[in-house]
Every structure is written in structure tokens, then in C-alpha cells.
Amino acid sequence: MNDVSDLYTQARTWVGKQATRPTTARDPVNVPMVRRWCEAMGETNPIFVDADAARAEGFAAPVSPPAMMEVWTMAQYRPGGRLKDDSIPVLELFDNAGYTGVVATNIEQEYDRYLVEGDTVSFTAVVDDVSEEKRTGLGIGHFVTIRYEFTDQNGEPVGRMLFRVLKFKPNLAQAPAPAVADDAAKPAFPHPRPAITHDNAFYWEGIARRELLIQKCSGCGELRHPPGPACPHCHSLEWDTVKASGKATLYSHVVMHQPRLPTFDYPLPVLLVELEEGVRMVANGIDLPADKLAIGMKLDLDFIEIEPGYLLPAFRPSR
Q1: Helices (H), the chain
Q2: Which among 192, 238, 290, 300 would be 20 to 30 A from 175, CA to CA?
Q3: What pLDDT was estimated at residue 61?
Q4: Which domain holds residue 256?
Q5: Is 73:20 a contact under the CB 8 Å cutoff?
């Protein structure tokens, strides 16, 4: 049996077994955490933060947004990574075999009821599936699916989740040679390209003209980003666009260290900016090293030409 099939066979033995230890949330559902999540997500439904509004809808207390179900049980952040007890052995199996890259590919959640203030959430996790080796744009790899079952403090089901990741090896063997014969030169890996659809084609056409276009609902006038087929406020399918001024504020940011993908420099700052028009977007920075980032700093729109004819929006410190 070759190494590839042997690895796959070993990984398949985990299907149906516990993926990681059962976990209980460190904190019960509470309004302060819900409020901050809603502010970050732009959620304005009052039943999540206001007791009177919640009671008017038949709830005994404010409820948690359904999409927060997993948030309550997230592991504590540790600079050194997960504790051994929190590890996921089937993923470590691929790490040890050289499949060190990881990227989340999709998530499916189902909800049985709203979580109410005071609920304490727990989960159990089982390996649901491991795919055969696949060749992807990131490199060869395996898709690993984990099924989570969520319960409340009484052991009653409140929801479930399927979470799928790709564990991969960057396809270095097929990468083109460096453009310059220099020890410090980087291989000319192709930069990831966006998936252009009917809904977002206008956005990328604008970027190619060095314009940042924001989708505007023709029904209620609300601006939205990223682009979508329907207005989340009034559900109208009719829309137009407005050109952004280019003025923005740094709303938040993260600095990525892993996974390390070709074409990117690490540590990699990723910005969440709030445009002058009120919508937020994720973007790259220019002349913005990680140690110079400050929430609230003023930014100006610019564009980076990644490859001839391929531009990305980016933001630099305001002049």
C-alpha cells in the first residue's frame, strides 16, 4: 500500500469517532457578548439586546442570534495554539503527513430553538467524513467534515453543525521557477483569483477601472457590501450602484500568521474598514505594517496591481 492510500485508510478509521473532547461554554448566554457580536455584524434586531422587545415576541429574556450558536463554545485564545486536550487528532494526522495547510470550505448549521439569556451551551463532535485525495488550486489535499451537536444545560438539543475543511499541501512541485535567479527571490506562484458571479461582476469591473462601487437597493436606498442578489432590509431584487469616495476608517483588523500560502507576506495584516458611506469591507493595507495599525485611524483608498490587468482595492494611511 502506498503512502497516499495508507494515509487515507488511517484517516477513514476516524469516521464516526469523537473528533475532539466534548466542550461546555465558559460563559452562559449574556447580553454584553451578544451586543458586541451584533455591533460587529451590523445586526439590529432588538430582541437580541432588549428585554422588553424580547418579551413582546414571547421570550422570557433577550435571545442570542442563531448564528452565535458555535461562538459560545469557542476555545480560549492562546498565543501558542490549542491545548493538547482541545486537539483534533484526525487533522493532526494530516499535519504529520505534510498536509500542513488548512482552509475552511463550508459550514452548515441547523437550529432547534433560540438560545435565551442564561443558557449554557455544550457540544460533542464526531468525524463525519474524510474524502479521497483531491487536487485543488491550493494543492493536493483531503476534505475533512466534522459534525457538531449542540445542547443546553439540561442536555436538550439546540442545534447542529457540519464544518468542512481542506487539509492540503501547497503544490510546490508544479510551481513555476523564480523569475529572478536569486536566493531571496520568491517563486512566481499565481495569486488567488476571486469567484466572479452574476451578483458581483459589476464590483470587479469597477475595480478594473480603479473605482470602488457599492451596491444600493433601489427599493429602500440601503447600501450593502459584499454584493448580493436581494436587499437584506426590504428584500427588493432591484439595485443600482454608487461610487465610494475612497475615505475610510479602520474598524478592526487581524494579523494572520498561519496558514502560510504562496504569494503572501507574513505576518499578514487583514483590515476591516468602514467606508465613509457606512458599509464595511475586508481589504489589504499599503504602508501599514502590523505594529502601526490603530483602530479609528483614517485611511484612503488605493489599488494594487497584483498581475497585469488584475487589481485589488487596498487602503493606505490618509494623507
Answers
A1: 3-12, 31-41, 51-56, 89-96, 201-208
A2: 290
A3: 92
A4: 201-317
A5: no
pLDDT, tens only, 269-283: 999 999 999 999 999
CATH number, domain with residue 25: 3.10.129.10
Cα 74 from Cα 64, distance rounded (Å) = 15
Give the CA distances from residue 224 to residues 238, 240, 241, in Å, rounded to whole numbers and listed in that order.
Answer: 13, 11, 10
8-state DSSP, 147: E
Residues 211, 94 within the same domain: no
Per-residue cell: 235:
428584500
Report the CATH number at residue 268: 2.40.50.840
Helix (H) or strand (E) holding 141: strand 139-151
Q: Within this chain, do residues 207 and 126 fall inside the same structural domain, yes or no?
A: no
Q: One-letter amino acid identity for 6?
A: D
Radius of gyration of the chain (CA): 23
Which grid coordinates belong to 105? 470550505
Q: 151 with 247, same domain?
A: no
Q: Grid coordinates 493536493 are at which residue?
A: 140
pTM of the predicted model as reported, rounded to 2 decimal places: 0.61
Q: How many CB atoms lie within 10 A of CB 301?
A: 21
Q: What 3-state class would DSSP assign to 261?
A: coil
At 261 the pLDDT is: 72
Q: Are residues 209 and 279 in the same domain?
A: yes
